[in-house]
Specification:
This protein is α/β, with parallel strands linked by helices. The protein is built from twelve helices and seven strands.
Length: 264
């Protein structure tokens, strides 16, 4: 998830039982300093193979897995032509996945969305990838409407690759979906709620994670204030006083003010 999966948040998810945590989308040409000490799955977005081999050589030791995103439906993805807006360019997809595969011995996955070319993309993925992730909504839907689980199941029957299912996975449907797919990806249900993984894991006791836990890790990793403020907003989800807290957080200009709002 773009902007959500910073290192502090990933560490909380891992602590509470997530088997694998992904970075947000990273362009291989980035000059940004990356915090990958937790060895996450590194999620790439791009429109050409430029810079991929060099980037992967630099960071392969810190990656548990490499993922190529062809599912993002965001406005900036439309503007720049990446994510789900690249699914028409089969030749370039083939080139990119080929370079990724040749640049690592780690697992390689591709994230897909419901589209006209999905069967053709899966055939390409079968040459280079170890698994595919499917979010069964169309580009136009974004995150609205219901995820089409039956569509994802039909795709699973058509491919020899393991299928990671993504789309409205939460505590209510996890056990049912777990029986139908090889792996499950939890996205929006974990935003501001990393403790969800402890409630779903048979090996973990249910753990209540608060914003204070996040803040301690964020300060340890020296995250920017803007990132801390974003997560502070997210952690108000489900709180009785959440609406009033968000109103105050919008005006907050320091970490100290955020602490006062959360009474920590």
């Amino acid at each position: 998830m773009a902007e959500i999966n910073d290192i502090a948040f990933r560490e909380l998810c891992k602590k509470t039982g997530a088997s694998l945590c992904y970075t947000g989308m990273i362009n291989p040409l980035t000059q940004q300093k990356l915090q990958l000490e937790d060895k996450p799955a590194i999620q790439l977005f791009c429109t050409s193979e430029s810079g991929i081999a060099e980037f992967m050589k630099k960071y392969d030791k810190t990656a548990r897995l490499w993922d190529f995103n062809l599912g993002c439906p965001a406005k900036n993805a439309r503007k720049l032509g990446f994510g789900s807006f690249m699914c028409h360019n089969l030749q370039e997809i083939d080139k990119i996945l080929k370079v990724i595969r040749e640049s690592t011995d780690k697992p390689v996955t591709v994230k897909l969305r419901k589209s006209r070319n999905i069967n053709k993309i899966i055939k390409i993925a079968e040459k280079y990838c170890d698994a595919i992730c499917i979010h069964p909504r169309t580009q136009e839907q974004g995150y609205s409407g219901k995820a089409d689980v039956e569509y994802a199941l039909k795709l699973k029957k058509r491919t020899k690759l393991p299928v990671i299912y993504s789309g409205d996975v939460d505590e209510n449907n996890f056990k049912k979906l777990e029986k139908k797919f090889d792996f499950l990806m939890i996205g929006r249900a974990a935003v501001g709620n990393p403790g969800i993984f402890s409630r779903l894991s048979i090996n973990k006791q249910s753990e209540r994670i608060s914003f204070k836990d996040y803040l301690e890790l964020a300060i340890k990793h020296k995250l920017y204030f803007s990132q801390i403020k974003l997560q502070a907003m997210n952690f108000t989800k489900g709180l009785k006083t959440g609406k009033e807290m968000r109103r105050k957080l919008i005006l907050a200009k320091t970490t100290r003010e955020i602490r006062e709002i959360y009474s920590i």
